[in-house]
């Protein structure tokens, strides 16, 4: 079991590359495109509508660009500034993971889970040329923290919906599937109506709508019905359907190694059998 000093020492060593690699030149096409969208946002002084090469942009929601633009405002337009939001979200996700582990399993398991997450090669890869993924992971992890924290601090249930809404502004409605499916499954397995009431679903819906509505209104004003339709359906759930993207190879819609990915379908299953009550 990891002791306190050993845990912090290992964590520092694992997270140091997050910062040391931030000076490297951005190379991936998507990351370069996102950096330019944020730069044009700073140049124009307008957070909406989005522009890429001074042309209307529809492909991704605005949260990542807003965060990068704020970083540009504070620290200038450079490689480090572009990566700062992703680095912050990566660190916050580690903090949230530690807190979730402490609430559900205890400090020992929390330390182990945090170290395992920090050592994940995908974290370093997503920070080398950040896109939307690390921002999304940060918001979703914070949403799960708020969910488990609500048993001690009921007001944090509002943060659950707030972070889920931010996730939707980062990746689209698909970002709501993971937290809502996971929480919904737990509520059903517990067969506890009180747990459902404690989630305040109507209040949560109002929070998500309030957070995301300005973006979809802006899309409608610029693109008409096509804008919200693309953002709410085609860009996210539409990928499931062959007709939407007119794929010639149906295998592109499946994981490359189905038997290996099948266990991941169990991830949303509830942790309540192991849940340690405060």
Characterise this structure.
The chain is mainly alpha-helical and 278 residues long. The chain has one domain. It is 67% helix and 1% strand. It contains 14 helices and two strands; from the N terminus they run ααββαααααααααααα. It has a two-stranded antiparallel ribbon. Strand 1 and strand 2 (55-56) form a beta hairpin. Helix 7 packs parallel to helix 9, helix 8 packs antiparallel against helix 9 and helix 11 (201-223) crosses helix 12. The longest helix has 26 residues, at 79-104. The chain is flat and about 50 Å long. The two termini are 22 Å apart.
In short:
This protein has one domain.
Sheet bearing the most strands, described? 2 strands, antiparallel
SS strand fraction: under 5%
Anisotropy-based shape: flat
Tally of separate helices: 14
Give the radius of gyration: 20 Å
Structural class: mainly alpha
| Cα end-to-end separation | 22 Å
Unreliable sequence segments: 248-274
Q: How are the strands ordered across the major sheet?
A: 1-2
Helical amount: 55-70%
Order of helices and strands: HHEEHHHHHHHHHHHH
Mean model confidence by pLDDT: 83
- Overall structural domain count: 1
The total count of strands amounts to: 2
């Amino acid at each position: 079991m990891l002791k306190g000093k050993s845990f912090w020492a290992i964590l520092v060593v694992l997270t140091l590359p997050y910062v040391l690699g931030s000076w490297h030149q951005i190379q991936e096409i998507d990351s370069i495109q996102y950096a330019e969208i944020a730069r044009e946002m700073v140049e124009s002084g307008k957070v909406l509508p989005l522009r890429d090469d001074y042309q209307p942009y529809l492909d991704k929601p605005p949260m990542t660009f807003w965060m990068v633009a704020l970083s540009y405002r504070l620290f200038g337009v450079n490689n480090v500034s572009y990566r700062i939001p992703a680095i912050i979200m990566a660190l916050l996700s580690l903090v949230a993971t530690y807190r979730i582990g402490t609430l559900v399993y205890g400090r020992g398991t929390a330390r182990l889970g945090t170290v395992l997450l920090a050592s994940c090669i995908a974290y370093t890869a997503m920070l080398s040329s950040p896109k939307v993924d690390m921002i999304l992971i940060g918001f979703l992890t914070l949403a799960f923290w708020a969910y488990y924290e609500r048993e001690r601090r009921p007001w944090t249930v509002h943060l659950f919906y707030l972070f889920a809404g931010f996730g939707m502004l980062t990746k689209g409605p698909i970002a709501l599937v993971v937290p809502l499916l996971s929480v919904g499954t737990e509520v059903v397995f517990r067969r506890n109506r009180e747990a459902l009431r404690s989630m305040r679903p109507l209040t949560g819906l109002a929070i998500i709508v309030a957070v995301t509505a300005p973006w979809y209104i802006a899309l409608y004003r610029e693109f008409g019905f096509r804008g919200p339709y693309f953002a709410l359906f085609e860009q996210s759930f539409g990928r499931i359907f062959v007709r939407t993207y007119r794929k010639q190879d149906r295998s592109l819609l499946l994981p490359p190694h189905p038997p290996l990915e099948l266990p991941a379908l169990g991830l949303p299953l509830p942790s309540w059998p192991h849940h340690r009550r405060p």
